[in-house]
Amino acid sequence: MNRIISFEQYLSEYKKSVDDPEQFWAAQAEGFVWRKKWDKVLEWNFTEPNVKWFIGGKLNITENCLDRHLAERGDQTAILWEPNNPKEEGRKLSYKELHTEACRFANVLKNNGAKKGDRICIYMPMVPELAIALLACARIGAIHSVVFGGFSFQSLSDRIHDADCNIVITADGAFRGAKDIPLKSVVDEALQTCPSVKKVIVLKRTNCEVKMQNERDVWWSDEVKKVSAECPVEEMDSEDMLFILYTSGSTGKPKGVVHTTAGYMVFTKYTFENVFQYHLTHSPSPIGEGSQQPEVYWCTADIGWITGHSYLVYGPLLAGATTLMFEGIPTYPDAGRFWQVIDKYKVNIFYTAPTAIRSLMAAGDNFVKPYKLDSLRVLGTVGEPINEEAWKWYNETIGKKKCPIVDTWWQTETGGIMISPLAGITKTKPGYATLPLPGIQPALLDEKGEELFGNNVEGKLCFKFPWPGIIRTTYKNHKRCFNVYFSQYKGYYFSGDGCKRDEDGYYRITGRVDDVIKVSGHLLGTAEIENAINRHPDIVESAVVGFPHPIKGWGIYAFVIDDHNRKDTDELKKEIIATVTKFMGSIAKPDKIQIVKGLPKTRSGKIMRRILKKISEGDTSNLGDTSTLLDPSVVEEIKQGALS
Ligand code: 7RM
Predict the structure, then answer these.
(1) Which residues span the domain enclosing 480?
(2) Residue 543 lies in a domain
(3) Do residues 599 and 492 share a domain?
(4) Would you give the DSSP letter of residue 567?
(5) CB of 517 closer than 6 A to ligand 1?
(6) What is the mean pLDDT of residues 388-417?
(7) CATH number reported for the structural domain that contains residue 536 in this entry
(8) What percent of the chain has pLDDT over 70?
(9) 420 CB under 6 A from ligand 1?
(10) Domain stop point among 456, 490, 512
(11) Residue having the nearest C-alpha atom to atom 10 of ligand 1
């Protein structure tokens, strides 16, 4: 392990990584199992783009997540699992057991026709079998595409279509708080338009009633009985695809972000160990001097998002860590659940989202008081900017001022953490992601695309040199990858975020500068939500913008045009919410709906969201230049409607 242990060492590693990136990353790539070492560390340009890491290397990531640990830590817990219902018993899987289950399920996949290079869609609750499914795919060289269980059938079917999946792995249902979500019936509805899918493997979780389609649908529990637990790894090329993960963009169609094997592996392990300062043994130990127990690490993200891929499954397993997986939600059965689970498992490192912190803070300290929280050593946040008040509450009420907070900035496209403190090493400032990790070269660009040098500057956050976890392409559409990330600023990767570099050279993210919004930490495209709203038969057109929301970070404000002039507006609004829930999922439900007669459009027909955004924020005094609008009078009408 090459863990940085002091700020001086961070500075010197950073310098080395910029002076000679290839040598730096080659050093981080030692210590993994390579079936064949790489011939060349890096080949790249940002003009196509074309980025390749560890060229010519042969490996399998699961050999590095599982097999590599068996001799030394086979009996150590790999996955701890806490169910939704606190009365149900938790589960534990040692590295040996996880290896066995992943191998067995890999054989199930093969038995059901899966081959290297196939795309397999995973739509599951947060149970250990979800992690097993990812690892089983990777073991046989199939490309997993996980779709978050909160998405509904249209979003699911779009993603299955785009990746041309031949297998779907799902469960009968999912427990989330007081709700049971019927996953299998959502899959059934999605598959009506997905002829590529030949097999559906169904795990029993909620025991709800499901319809099994002959030939196509099989039970997980039946299939595992038919196969052995021996499954040699498929030898993969460094640049073979590991997974696709869909992320929302400015158009209605989500992008299939592609990550490949070796670079992603090296990057997630390096960033996991360094940012969280994960220790395989406690020393000094919060649970007794010299304990040989590895630290317990808990990332609350769902595996359906990149945070779950990189820092619940791959990063921790590559590091040989004990990773806790939680099926439920922060507020069930009450707003003390996270704190109860931390005490129950003596969690040392806790990684969650600002939106969760804000909602638990709002619930009140009485939910925290019953718990000791004395096992905690490091706290982390991810997904959105954290406001100072929430940061302080996290620091004082949860961390008791003893736990460094790592505010980690990164994206689905970056594969892993890019800008973040190293726990206990980098001096933190509330609201700041602080400094780039070694190997990461940020650049702030102004409107004209000129790089802003020095401190006390603000611009668009870009990167000028590749890192091993960088997006390789958007699935089956390389042009889109170029257009979205590499065309705006020639020679740079553009993140879509605004950012400040303060007088100390510290980075502070100011938020998105495009048409996607982070709602409760989930990235949603406004166009995708509009498409769902427009499925309502009475709605001819809609425009969605984000407005600041005290808990969610951003809320969804929808301006809709009702073709039928319905008088029962409350009923109509309810129906719109139901439509969005049905087609896209409840994560995309509008918080506010305003029925309007027209939308502010330019003469070329483009909706001027800038104006709608101001109105949604309640700031109608200065809407800027509206003279280029096709019909400036609609603005007055919308303003009046927003106030009423
Ligand atoms: C990991 C993840 C990416 C977007 C990104 C930002 C925002 C993420 C932070 C943050 C401020 C942070 N991937 N973001 N982390 N903003 N501070 N620490 O969330 O692809 O879903 O979203 O999230 O806008 O571009 S993501």
Answers:
(1) 442-512
(2) yes
(3) no
(4) S
(5) no
(6) 98
(7) 3.30.300.30
(8) 98
(9) no
(10) 512
(11) 384
Ligand 1 near 384 CB (within 6 A): yes
Out of 411, 428, 499, give the residue to mutate to test ligand 1, the one with the largest number of ligand atoms within 8 Å of its CB. 411
Q: Looking at the 3D structure of the chain, how many domains does it have?
A: 2
Ligand 1 in reach of 409 Cβ (< 6 A)? yes
Same domain? For 627 and 542 the reply is yes
In this model, does residue 574 exceed pLDDT 70?
yes
The mean per-residue pLDDT over the stretch 550-566 comes to 95
Helix (H, G, I), strand (E, B) or coil at 49: coil
163-169: average pLDDT? 98
Q: Is 326 in the pocket of ligand 1 (CB under 6 A)?
A: no
Q: Which amino acid is at 495?
A: S
Same domain membership, residue 639 and residue 567: yes
pLDDT category of residue 291 using cuts at 50, 70 and 90: low
Q: Which two tokens stand for residue 419?
A: 């800008």
The rounded distance, in Å, linking the Cα atoms of 444 and 459 is: 5
* Residue 639 buriedness (CB in 10 A; 0-12 / 13-18 / 19+): middle
For the ranges 2-11, 59-68, 281-290, 484-493, the lowest mean pLDDT is seen at: 281-290
Is residue 495 domain-shared with residue 459, that is, in the same domain? yes
Element holding 638 (H helix, E strand): helix 633-643
pLDDT digits (tens, 9 = 90+) for 326-375: 999 999 999 999 999 999 999 999 999 999 999 999 999 999 999 999 99
User: What is the bridge-based pairing of β-strands 522-525 and 516-519?
Assistant: antiparallel
Its sign, for the CA torsion 152, 153, 154, 155, is: positive
pLDDT single digits (tens) 172-196: 999 999 999 999 999 999 999 999 9
Shared-domain flag, residues 539 and 628: yes
Residue 320 is assigned to a structural domain of this protein: no
